[in-house]
Design goal:
The protein is built from twelve helices and two strands, in the order H-H-H-H-H-E-E-H-H-H-H-H-H-H. The protein is flat, with a radius of gyration of 20 Å. A two-stranded antiparallel ribbon has the order 1-2. The relative contact order is 0.13. A hairpin with a 5-residue loop joins strand 1 (127-128) and strand 2 (134-135). It has 331 residues and is mainly α. The model is unreliable at 1-11 and 313-331 (pLDDT under 50). The chain has one domain.
């Protein structure tokens, strides 16, 4: 995923600039892993070489750096301070990127969920207190993993999975006017609408970050209403998409089912983010856990469908210490 696009939202330049500015071992190893695996990814034309991961020295090196990153992060998190949280969120961003490159949507989702919990438990944004007043963020300047995730899914991916989310308005109008089938037009419109909801969510997060205990009541009320409206929009999208997902064009091939399932996955990601925007885990714990569980189920289906598309078996991670992947010490 490159840095310059006419459509969508790009995150890579700002992410790499931030990551390269630190010498933290966990971040260093994660960035090294991402760089090596990205090189392999680009070498094979924008797709991970699933059939040779156990043979390629470059892939093995990248996975070893991944393991080193998580082990370093576990040590860092044992301190339980603001700097540890900062580095853990940076690493979550890179871990998500690495797992997506290897089509492991389940692991990517687990990193996202852990990071979101860490963000909200640390009160990294202003939030509403029990009395309805705005409470100041307790940890200022933390990486915004939720905004990163939205940007990640609104950035063009090499295999075209996110193509329908990224069509400029003028091109979209031309494509809709062109002789598209009714079913294809329905999918196109749905994904464009979901992308709009994603951009509205980014705007919501940005505005929440600007709040303070001195914010005007009208401003707070407007943001709270915007949050509810986006949630309603995401739920309505989900309800309407049920029929679209059952269309023959959405089910006739593994690739079609993959694209349909990815749209559903992106919807669950946005619903979890908006549910917790301006709120807290203590208030929204039960409702967001339901969305997290739904997200993990959809992520598993995505992984299975990607294997069907690629015609490969389970990913091999020879030499990786699975216990090292447990870094959820804040949970």
């Amino acid at each position: 995923m490159g840095a310059n696009y006419e459509t969508g939202v790009s995150y890579e330049l700002e992410a790499r600039a931030t990551l390269c500015a630190t010498s933290e071992p966990a971040v260093y190893h994660a960035l090294a892993s991402l760089t090596v695996l990205r090189g392999v990814f680009d070498q094979y034309g924008g797709s991970f070489p699933h059939k040779i991961p156990a043979v390629s020295p470059a892939v093995q090196h990248g996975l070893q750096e991944y393991e080193n990153a998580i082990k370093s992060l576990v040590v860092r998190l044992s301190n339980r301070n603001a700097l540890s949280i900062h580095y853990s969120l940076l690493c979550c961003q890179m871990f998500m990127s690495i797992e997506l490159a290897m089509d492991d949507f389940t692991s990517c989702t687990q990193h996202f969920i852990r990071g979101i919990r860490i963000m909200h438990q640390g009160r990294s944004r202003p939030y509403l207190g029990s009395n309805g007043n705005v409470m100041a963020a307790q940890l200022v300047g933390m990486p915004a993993l939720d905004a990163f995730a939205i940007k990640l899914f609104l950035t063009p991916c090499p295999d075209g999975l996110t193509e329908d989310f990224l069509i400029p308005d003028d091109e979209a109008q031309n494509r809709v006017i062109a002789p598209l089938s009714t079913e294809r037009a329905a999918i196109l419109h749905a994904n464009m609408h979901l992308a709009d909801l994603g951009r509205s969510t980014l705007n919501l997060l940005d505005n929440v970050s600007r709040l303070s205990p001195e914010s005007q009541a009208e401003t707070v009320s407007t943001l709270a209403s915007n949050r509810i409206n986006i949630l309603h929009g995401l739920q309505a999208w989900k309800d309407d998409f049920v029929a679209i997902a059952q269309l023959e064009i959405s089910q006739d091939t593994s690739w079609a089912r993959l694209g349909t399932t990815f749209s559903i996955f992106f919807n669950t990601v946005l619903r979890s983010i908006v549910t917790l925007a301006f709120r807290s885990l203590e208030v929204e714990g039960e409702s967001v856990e339901l969305v997290f569980n739904e997200m993990l189920e959809v992520a598993y289906r995505l992984g299975q469908l990607k294997k069907e598309v690629n015609g490969v078996s389970e990913r091999q991670l020879e030499g990786i210490d699975e216990q090292a992947f447990r870094y959820d010490l804040f949970l």
